[in-house]
Amino acid sequence: MASPTIESVLNESRLFSPPASFTDTAAINSLDAYKALAEKAAADPAKFWAELAEQELHWFKPWDTALDWQPPFAKWFVGGKINISYNCLDRHLTTWRRNKAALIWEGEPGDSRTLTYAQLHREVCQVANVLKSLGVKKGDRVGIYMPMIPEAAIAMLACARIGAPHTVIFGGFSAEALKDRLNDAEAKLVITADGGFRKDKTIALKAAVDDALADNGVPSVENVLVVQRTKAAVTMHEGRDHWWHELQAHADAHCPAEEMDAEDMLFILYTSGTTGKPKGVVHTTGGYNLYTHTTFKWTFDIKDTDVYWCTADVGWITGHSYIVYGPLSNGATTVMYEGVPRPSNPGCFWDVIEKYGVTIFYTAPTAIRAFIKMGDELPKARDLSSLRLLGTVGEPINPEAWMWYHTVIGKEKCPIVDTWWQTETGGFMVTPIPGAVPTKPGSATLPFPGIIADVVDLDGHPVAPGEGGYLVIKHPWPSMMRTVYGNDERYRRTYWEHIPPQDGQYLYFAGDGARKDEDGYFWVMGRVDDVISVSGHRLGTMEIESALVSHPAVAEAAVVGRKDDIKGEDIYAFVTLEGQYSPSDALKQELKDHVVKEIGIIARPGEIKFADALPKTRSGKIIRRFLRSLASGEAIAGDASTMEDQSVLDQLREG
Ligand code: WT7
Hints:
Blueprint: H1 20-23, H2 31-43, H3 45-56, E1 65-70, E2 73-78, E3 81-82, H4 84-93, E4 101-106, E5 112-116, H5 117-133, E6 142-145, H6 150-162, E7 166-168, H7 175-185, E8 189-193, E9 196-198, E10 201-203, H8 205-213, E11 223-227, E12 241-243, H9 244-249, E13 260-261, E14 265-271, E15 279-284, H10 285-299, E16 307-310, H11 317-329, E17 333-337, H12 348-356, E18 360-363, H13 365-374, H14 377-380, E19 389-392, H15 399-409, E20 416-418, E21 453-456, E22 468-473, H16 488-496, E23 508-516, E24 522-527, E25 531-534, E26 537-540, H17 541-549, E27 554-564, E28 568-577, H18 585-598, E29 607-610, H19 624-631, H20 647-654
Parallel strand pairs: 4-17, 6-7, 6-8, 8-11, 11-12, 16-17, 16-18, 18-19, 19-20, 28-29
Antiparallel strand pairs: 1-2, 3-13, 4-5, 9-10, 14-15, 21-22, 22-23, 23-24, 25-26, 27-28
Helix pairs in contact: 2-3, 4-5, 4-6, 4-11, 5-6, 7-8, 10-11, 13-15
The protein binds 5'-O-[(S)-butoxy(hydroxy)phosphoryl]adenosine.
5'-O-[(S)-butoxy(hydroxy)phosphoryl]adenosine (WT7) binds next to helix 11, strand 23 and strand 24.
C-alpha cells in the first residue's frame, strides 16, 4: 500500500463564508447550528438517527432496536417495516406534491419528458406488476442495464416496490463485465433497452445482453424486459425477451408497496477494489433510505422551489442516492439528462441549466476541468442566474478548478459542496452544510452530523493536524454497506482489518489518504490502494491487468495511473509479450480494444508500453512505485537496490 503524499496545493488558505443571500433562507444557517447538530449527534449517534427516522420517513411498523452493531456487521432499525418506493412516491400523493414535477428528463436527441409524482407513481406500479407477471418475487435480483432514460429510474423504483433487489450495471460496461455481474448476483431478470445514445453514437445495449446470455452464459436469467429507445434492430428471443411498452400497456396501475424489513436488501452495486474481481456492495432498505434522505435534504438545503440536477449516471452510486432515492424521498424535482458534453455539443450542460432553470447543480471535477479547457464563452453565453448552489463529487478537486467553478459558474454567490463519499458509504460522509460551514477550495470540509470521521496512522492513532494518514469512520452509520454480496470475509478483510480497533472501537477503512488541518477540515488526497480514478470512474488496476493477460499475446501486465489534466488519472499499462509476439502499434490497438471488450469503454488504456521485463523485487513483486514514476516521466524515486535485475529499469527508460 502506498502512503499518502501531501501535495503543495494543499497549502490552500482561502476561506469562503456562506453568502448572506444564501444563509438568509438556509435551513441550517450558521456554523454554531452545524456544531450543535454535530455535537448532539456525536453524543448518541443511534438516538440521533432514530429521531430523524421517525420524523422524516414513513414506517409501516416502527423498529424495536435502532442499531444492532456486531462489528463489522451493522443492522439499523431492526424490526421496522418500510418501503423506499413508498417513501419516494406514495406519501407525496396525498399532498400538493402529487402534481409537482418529480422527474424532468432531457433526452440526447432533444426529446424531453416531465413526470409528476402521480405520473411516476403510476408507471412504477405498472412496471412493478409487469415484473411480478414475469415471475419476479421478493428477494429475486434484477439486473438493470440501461441508458439515462426515465425508465431506468422507474425500473429501480419498481424493483424496490416489490422487494426485488436491483443491480444496476453502467451502460458503458461490456457484455463480458455485464455477464460477470449478473452471474455474481444470480439475477433472475434483466431490464435493458434496444440501445442508448452516447456522444453522437448509439450503443447496442440489447445486443450486449444477448452476448452476455448466449450459450447459457447467465443460467439464472429467465426473462429480459426491453425498453424501446433508439429503435435499433434487435433480435427478440421468443419466450425470453419482452417489450416493456407492450407489457406496460396492459399492466394494472395499482400495486401496493411490499412491507420490507428495514434490513432487507435494497440493491447490490458492483465497484472496483484491489483484487481483480469487482465487489458487490450490498445496501439495505431502512438505513439507506434515511441517510440518503437526510444528506440530500441538508447538504443541498433543498426547497420545494428547487430544480436539482445531478449529472451522474444512474449506473453509479451517485445516480442511485442523488438522482433517484434521495431527491424523490424528499419530494424534490430531479433532472435527468441523457447527453454528455462532447465536441459537437460542448455547451449542452449550460443549455439544460438555462432551459429548466436549474437551481442546484452537482457534477464531477473531471467535467469541470474539461469545461475550463473549452473556454468561458460557453457558460457565459447562457443564462445561469437560476443557480444558487453547486456541488462536486468523485475525486479531489484541485483549487484552480474549484475557483473557476465558484467564479464562472457560481458568479461568486453559490456555495460549493465538495462531497466526499463512496459506493460503500451510500451517502455523503464529509461535506459542507452550505449555509453553515465556510468552504476552502479543495477541501470537503467537515463530517456530516452523525459521522465520526478521523485521519489515523496504520496503528489507528490519530495523526497530528496537517499530517497525512488514512481516512477512517469510527461509528456505524445508517447507509453503510452491509457486506460484499456473498462474501462476508472479503467485507471484513477489505474494510475492517487494515487498521486495528482502538479501545474496542472498530475503524472503517475507506482506502483514501487524507489530512486534517488546524480547523478540523478534511483534505482527501486520493486512493492509497491499487484503485485509480479515470474521469471519476473507479477502476482496479488488477482488473485491467487481468483483462490484458487474458489476451494470448500478453505474458505479464502491470497497470498504473498517470496524472491527467482532465481525467484526473489515465490508465498506463506496461506489458511483456509471449515469445512468439513482437511489439507493434497494431498490437497496441488490439490490446486496448481487448480491454474494452473485457471491461468496457471506461477502462480503455490511454497508453500501452511494451517491455522486455517488469521491475521486480527479489521475491518477485512488481515495484509499482517505479512504474508510476516511469509513466509520469519522472525520475525513479527511492531505492532500487531491492530490485532483482537493475538493467530492467534502464531498458524501460530507453524504450
Ligand atoms: C472514491 C469512491 C461517491 C460517488 C462517486 C465515487 C473518491 C469521491 C470525493 C471527493 C475526494 C473523492 C475517493 C473515494 N472521491 N468523492 N469529494 N473528494 N475524493 O464513488 O466510485 O465508490 O469512488 O472516490 O477516492 O474513495 P466510488
